[in-house]
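Request: Could I get any protein with tokenized structure?
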Amino acid sequence: MKTVNAAFIFPGQGAQKVGMGKDFYNSSKAAKAVFEEANDALKEDLTSLIFEGPQESLTLTANTQPSILTVSIAALRALNEQSSFVPKFVAGHSLGEFSALTAASALSLADAVRITRARGTFMQEAVPTGKGGMAAVMGDLAYDKLIEVCNTASDTNYTVAPANLNAPNQTVISGHKEAVEKASNILEEMDLRIIPLQVSAPFHSSLMKPAAEKLSEILNTIEIEDMTIPVVTNVEATPNSDKSRVKELLIRQVTAPVRWTESIKTMLEAGVNTFIELGPGNVLAGLMKRIEKKATVISVNSIEGVDKALTELEKV
């Protein structure tokens, strides 16, 4: 095992597409075993859903979350099959934090798959369809000013707050549909571009409290193991190696903002300049360009990405 001055990062919801991870399955025995273990954990053929769809079923939150986690860990195992590199840190965006915890051995794959299925179900059930909303705010805006706008748009009946602090010029707000629309109107008047998101629930907002409470019950039945790699958490944007804090941080994460920009800066300040994105898509690589253009990011979303990652890790 060789520890390298790099970080492995894992995507969250939104990166899913039918057919993701299929070449890992076909090219790597270790990756194929991940898909089979996920099927066994859920007692259903999750692999067929991932590879064949339909897209409508894959995008249901209860299916999306374990599916992305499975593909992310399959990518990791395909990489590990050819190397013994251990990163300095791991981190994941929202759902991706469960992938990071699995990579750090805090969670078993089977437990992670079952927890993310439950988490997705709870988040979907927390708010009736059409009652919540999310919107991306594009442009430079100080965080305290965004808080001020959200407070102005909120009242005793409706609330909106920052949810994903993705990059210096990209923040997502979340909450009741009416408050999100009101905040969006104010922000547009400030010459900021607003993109309403097609999501099934207002993630990382106070409306997710029922989901957090149910997730707590599930986590209480799970054993967290010692971490082999520090996990930079969404809630605090700092490395955590204390297994006794994992459950608390995951429960808080459901209603708290994803502090992704700060998480990346924490790793950059610790000397990390090489990031390996493991899982479907390349969303995190795109965000990295907005956070630190000089950082090296390799997206391992196909078997070809494994070779590129290994080449880059050899240099670190």
In short: The longest strand covers residues 2-10. Residues 2-126+208-315 form a domain with the Malonyl-Coenzyme A Acyl Carrier Protein; domain 2 fold (CATH 3.40.366.10).
